[in-house]
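Sharing a chain and its predicted structure for anyone who wants a worked example. Both blocks are below, sequence first, tokens second.
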Amino acid sequence: MKKFIFTITSCILCLSASAYDFCIDEIFYNILASGNAVEVTHDYDSENSTTGSYKGKVTIPETVTHEGTTYQVTAIGTDAFAECARLTNVILPESITTIERKAFYDCSRLKEITIPQSVTNIGELAFYHCVKLESLNIPASVNNIGSKAFILCNGLTSLTVDNANTAYSSDNNIIYNKEQTLLVAAMSTYSGHLDLPGTVTEIGENAFVECDGLTSINLGNVTTIHDYAFFDCKGLKSITLPESVEKLGTGAFFNCTNLTTLKMNDKLREMGERAFMRCISLNDIEFAGDNLKIGNHAFESCKNMSIGDISDCVSEIGDYAFASCIKHRTLVLPASIQRIGEKAFFACSQISRLTLGRELQEIGENAFLNCNRIRQITVNAMTPPTISKSTFEPAVYSNATLAVPDESIDDYKVADHWKDFIEIEPSAVNIIDSDNNIQVVAFNSQITIVGTAADAPVSVYTTDGTLVQQTVASNLAQYSFESGIYIVKVEKSAYKVAL
């Protein structure tokens, strides 16, 4: 038995000792499944998995002959020239039909390459970080360009597509599909303002990765911004999402560290995971949307933002969505929110007052972990939302006052984990009549309106019908009221408020 195991192990070692089938003139080849063609590959082996040996100028032949058989060279294989730091020039034959994934990955000194008219496919990350390349022309034959094919080509000043290409087109050094409905890729060196053609409806995955020179963009009629489309675009300072935008992909604006202003639109439905994660300068946000679901980690580590005015467009807040957004002190979440994910407000350590809406059904584990300063929680939901013991810190259960609707106070006193609050009292605000997601918040001598237009008219009355104050929603918080019971009317809603 030991001898049998040793034999198998030896065979495996022999097979893995070389990553190529043969070598001619210091170029390494693998025989393809067809049996009459080969791809150029690298010379890595089981003992040397670092960079390859290609250097200087390399000319790939159309055919090679090995052990009496002539093969056509049809592909530049995966990782074939990856990290060949001494490679400066490659001449490809017209027999090449595909440039595979990471074929020229991180060839930091590659200055010149011409993609032949025979090539139909350019793989993902094919020319990643080829910082010395100055120009690339996509021939008419190419019908597929992989994601991130040209990102971090920081010396690229010309990126064009042959006019005869039926799959792609180019304009202003930006690659689109032929109909110019999808923006596929832009040079990392693109700079200044960009007005997108009115035909563009989608920004492709990784299209503007690390395009630090891009300072602003008019998104025109875009409906979808795909994953990591503007990842690490440090030149962007403001983004306005037009009414056409319905979806933001994962990491769409991840690590745009100088982005300060974000204006959403009423049709936005989905904000992907990490959409604005680490946008550390973001401090001016206009929330809007239609039943908007904020994805996991969407605003994590946006340490300068304040989200006290999340509008009633939001229905779900994902896991870690606002984690480490440390500026929150008073947090009022609209009535429209039905679920708050795990660790959604993790380490928002400045929160002292928290108001939760009447549609809320569930708060995830550790949602307010490391939020020890919370001293006032108002929950407007008639039925106690589902929570876990870890939703709030132990100190919060002991030190915070929990205010709930009058008619539900007995339900909260027996509900799992809500009953752990030492102090439970009736809410200062009770709904008289409302068919929308407006929230009225009462604290000390002030009344605040959340979830309505800034210019919505507001009237405040005493219980005998005397008008005390008439203003608009955005101005109400600046007035002080004497202790007592008031009726607040805003839009078609009425609320009973105790100060």
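Comments welcome. The mean pLDDT is 90.
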